[in-house]
Amino acid sequence: MSGDDGRTDGGTVDPTDDDLAIQTDVSASVQSRDQRVASTETVVRAENVNVFYNDAQALNDISLEIPENRVTAMIGPSGCGKSTFLRCINRMNDLIAAARVEGNLFLRNKNVYDDDVDPVALRRRVGMVFQTPNPFPKSIYENVAYGLEIQGVDGDYDEIVEESLRRAALWDEVKDQLHESGLDLSGGQQQRLCIARAIAPDPEVILMDEPASALDPVATSKIEDLIADLAEEYTVIIVTHNMQQAARISDKTAVFLTGGELVEFGDTDEVFKNPSSDRVEDYITGKFG
Ligand SMILES: Nc1ncnc2c1ncn2[C@@H]1O[C@H](COP(=O)(O)OP(=O)(O)OP(=O)(O)O)[C@@H](O)[C@H]1O
């Protein structure tokens, strides 16, 4: 059975090494949803991760530990490898022929690059939301239910769809139009629909790649509020170009700089108030980037 099932009220985890390889019983993790409690467990641990696109190195020896039920922001100038790192966590880089990943990347105690890891099972535990809202050309209901179907999730879809839309703070706005197209929603609503789709299989980690950069300030603010709510139950890892946003919503901040180096990682307050190097300070204060 999956590591989800090993959780206890104390927030401890009893993962097995077979977590990702054998997890098929998602209903069990749905049941465990309410049992989740905030903790400081490490959920994602990178050890000496290097990524290359053909011969070009995009990430250089990245090691860090991302805590459970927190928002961790990845910031840094364009091209420094933030999205590449995010895609290592759910093995989306597998889909890029030129990409090669070296090193170890653990989801709890399991290296997601082990041969026996099923990337589909991994992506059920590590959901993703992209920069541009990308609902399917289907109804609001089907957008959420279709994700469940393709991931082979069993359960009462009506219930899961409603619950997911509620968790994405969208239910009240769409409950009377569930069978209308998701594409007719506003950009901000579409992004919340994509968040509902990502959380429907009840992942442990949600990756967000600049989820608000295509949205206006009001829609952005709603997404930021939502991220804070989601972190009560999920581990959220967000790439953002917006340093104020990182400072507002994240607990931890990782600063990447050109060359794919992780130059600072720590509590967000510390990173912003007291950066440990001139390079980071220059970036944070807008001297470059
Ligand atoms: N599919 C790809 N094929 C080849 N090179 C790539 C690919 N994706 C990214 N790269 C290169 O890897 C490096 C890191 O890119 P990545 O998109 O991860 O950076 P980023 O920090 O997320 O950038 P941005 O903030 O502009 O989105 C860049 O030099 C980029 O050109």
TrEMBL record:
Residue stretches making up the ABC transporter domain: 44-284
GO molecular function, one term: ATP hydrolysis activity
Location of region: Disordered: 1-20
Protein name as it appears in the record: Phosphate ABC transporter ATP-binding protein
An example Gene Ontology CC term for this record: membrane
Organism of provenance: Halosegnis rubeus
PROSITE patterns in the cross-refs: ABC_TRANSPORTER_1, ABC_TRANSPORTER_2
Keyword Nucleus included in the entry's annotation: no
